[in-house]
Amino acid sequence: MRSTDPDSVIGRAFRLLDAFRPGPAELTLDQLASRCGLARSTAHRLAGQLARQGALQQTDGGWRLGTRIFELGQMVSPQRRLRELALPHMQDLFVATGETVQLAVADDNEVLYIEIISGHRKVPSPSRRGGRMPLHCTALGKVLLAFSGDGGQSYLAGEPVLAPRTPSTIVELSTLRRELHHVRHEQLAYDHEEAAAGLMCVAAPLLNGQGIATAAMSVSMPTCGSLTLAAVAPAVRTATRALGRELARASPIASRA
């Protein structure tokens, strides 16, 4: 968990930046203050300071993230290298399936989306590049949990609140525990309209030398489409294993970390 004091200057600045996820690209000052739980004057002062550093930009309608945030984001080395190596495999998987391909890692007990390829026929989805989703209701999250260092045991022991996003979302810890057991056995995880109605997904882990998932790749598609998860699953597994081999060749030390 993040340890920054939320009431410190740095903590309040990050609360201001976090207000933009998830949500619209632009927020009014009142929206910023409300989302951060700050006084309007405090939000205005902090926003001005962040704007002077390029982290925020003032517009006619309010505020939006500045280009410096984008620049710094591109410098996050592990994710950048992972994305560079993954893109050709993701593109092959997109060509093979014609469906949305996603790459993600686990971060702070959430799924963090590193890259998404959706093409022109974009399926409505709650995920977005740089966005986050709960672990328990996504195929990516389940596979990252199942192949974490302890197989998800510390997460389950923490008795997380499994909030429902749809009527199909797993909300019982015992059910999720059984699901993770099946995921470890098959090296595949599924989402049957658990994150969004009308959307299903299959994911496979990117494993390091110790069998721990450093990332995961998935294909999501509408439930009303012509493809089935069973038909797409082998391609997802093949693409992920190919990426794992390439990552091991490119950086043997990093792949064992």
Task: Describe the structure using short key phrases.
257 residues; alpha+beta; Arc Repressor Mutant, subunit A; Beta-Lactamase; 2 domains; six-stranded antiparallel β-sheet; three-stranded antiparallel β-sheet; 9 strands; 44% helix
Task: Give a description of the structure.
- The structure is a single chain.
- This protein is of the alpha+beta class.
- The chain has 2 domains: 9-72, Arc Repressor Mutant, subunit A (Orthogonal Bundle), CATH 1.10.10; 77-255, GAF domain (Beta-Lactamase).
- The protein contains 10 helices and 9 strands.
- The protein has helices at residues 9-18, 29-36, 40-52, 67-73, 77-97, 139-146, 153-157, 173-186, 229-250, 252-255, and strands at residues 26-27, 56-58, 63-65, 100-107, 110-117, 132-134, 189-192, 199-207, 213-222.
- The strands form 2 sheets. The protein has a 6-stranded antiparallel β-sheet, with helices on both faces. The chain has a 3-stranded antiparallel β-sheet with strand order 1-3-2.
- Helix 2 crosses helix 3 (40-52) and helix 6 crosses helix 8 (173-186).
- The radius of gyration is 19 Å and the shape is globular.
- The two termini are 20 Å apart.
- The model is unreliable at 252-257 (pLDDT under 50).
